[in-house]
Amino acid sequence: YFVLMGVLTVYTTYVEKGIFLVALQKDEAGIDPDNKWELASMLKKYDDMYHLSMTFIDGKTGIKRTKEFSKCVSSYFDEKGTLCFDLFEPEIRLLQNKISAEDKKN
């Protein structure tokens, strides 16, 4: 048990690096490989800054584009400690739009 937990800890720390979501964006024509979106977050112990990074991996070219932001955790929670998704979602959309705009430039 302890050996497997050690292997799992090493894998999540050094391979996954905080990735909590991997989503595939299907090619509309069905010809090209799927694009991949990865979201990773980090919140250090005793720190109030939340770090979120979004990575887009083009299925056809394999090119990676990453955008990040850092913001105080209290920006997204109310007095009761409930996540205010309507405050958090625009930040995610903004990252996605920045990556998409960068794709249209190239």
Task: Report on the architecture of this protein.
The protein is an alpha+beta fold. The protein has two helices and four strands. Strands 1-2-3-4 form a four-stranded antiparallel β-sheet, with helices on one face. Strand 3 and strand 4 form a beta hairpin. It is flat, with a radius of gyration of 17 Å. The N and C termini lie far apart (about 50 Å). This is Signal peptidase complex subunit 2. Keywords: Endoplasmic reticulum, Membrane, Transmembrane, Transmembrane helix. It is found in: Endoplasmic reticulum membrane. It is a multi-pass membrane protein. It comes from Magallana gigas (Pacific oyster).
How are the secondary structure elements laid out?
Layout: H1 2-16, E1 19-25, E2 35-42, E3 49-57, E4 64-72, H2 85-105
Antiparallel strand pairs: 1-2, 2-3, 3-4
Brief summary:
The protein is α+β, with helices and mostly antiparallel strands and 106 residues long.
**What number is the mean pLDDT?**
88
Strand order of the largest sheet: 1-2-3-4
Enumerate the spans where pLDDT stays under 50 for 5 or more consecutive residues. none
Protein structure class: alpha+beta
Major beta sheet summary = 4 strands, antiparallel
Rg, Cα atoms, Å: 17 Å
How large is the count of helical segments?
2
Order of helices and strands: HEEEEH
Instruction: Characterize the overall form.
Output: flat
Instruction: Give helix % range.
Output: 25-40%
Q: Approximately how much beta-strand content do the residues carry? A: 25-35%
Overall strand count: 4
Q: Could you tell me how far the N terminus lies from the C terminus, measured between alpha carbons in angstroms? A: 49 Å
Pfam families: SPC25
Membrane topology: Multi-pass membrane protein
Subcellular location: Endoplasmic reticulum membrane
Main location: endoplasmic reticulum
